[in-house]
Amino acid sequence: MKNELPDDIEQLKAMLRQQQARLRQYASQVAGYEQEIERLKAQLDKLRRMLFGQSSEKKRHKLENQIRQAEKRLSELENRLNTARSYLEDAAAVTESPEASHLPESPVADSPVAARRKSSRKPLPAELPRETHRLLPAETACPACGGELKVMGETISEQLEIINSAFKVIETVRPKLACSRCDVIVQAPLPPKPIERSYASPGLLARILVSKYCEHIPL
């Protein structure tokens, strides 16, 4: 049965704002889980190194308990992350339409999958207006040895945004900083995306959903 939708434009705008807020909420959850998972993985690596070099039976037992607790928490967070990603994919399923699929995929930077797909990616048009955000890592000194960090490069990712039915590109620049004493490299984490490997921003996805399901405008 077809849903009854309001004819009032203000009500439709309110529905659009609700959808945007929902997508941002899911994206925020995904980002939070990803950051906590990375923190736990680093903690586990540290505990395992400590366990490997520990000769005291009492301390080994304590470290083993800490490792088990961290592994349990990591498993729980990974399950929650998968659920949150599933919500995002369901909310943005409209982008699977033939027209929406013309948006080029944007692999996660610095991953093996990204390296394999780089040759087939189509860049966003250079003539579109751009808004650049620079994200610096939280570390001001090397987290391993305290040495000075120097810029060694940067990673640039793009999202396609729509403002008052006009497109613009949100460009996120993340400098890579390398320690001058050791081989440690730090970089700010990539902001969450509603759909991995997609250029579409939360605002664009929300606009597509409202256009298709509320305003019944063909895509």
UniProtKB/TrEMBL annotation:
<dbReference type="InterPro" id="IPR024474">
    <property type="entry name" value="Znf_dom_IS66"/>
</dbReference>
<dbReference type="InterPro" id="IPR052344">
    <property type="entry name" value="Transposase-related"/>
</dbReference>
<feature type="domain" description="Transposase TnpC homeodomain">
    <location>
        <begin position="39"/>
        <end position="132"/>
    </location>
</feature>
<protein>
    <submittedName>
        <fullName>IS66 family transposase</fullName>
    </submittedName>
</protein>
<feature type="region of interest" description="Disordered">
    <location>
        <begin position="92"/>
        <end position="131"/>
    </location>
</feature>
<feature type="domain" description="Transposase IS66 zinc-finger binding">
    <location>
        <begin position="139"/>
        <end position="183"/>
    </location>
</feature>
<dbReference type="InterPro" id="IPR024463">
    <property type="entry name" value="Transposase_TnpC_homeodom"/>
</dbReference>
<dbReference type="Pfam" id="PF13005">
    <property type="entry name" value="zf-IS66"/>
</dbReference>
<dbReference type="Pfam" id="PF13007">
    <property type="entry name" value="LZ_Tnp_IS66"/>
</dbReference>
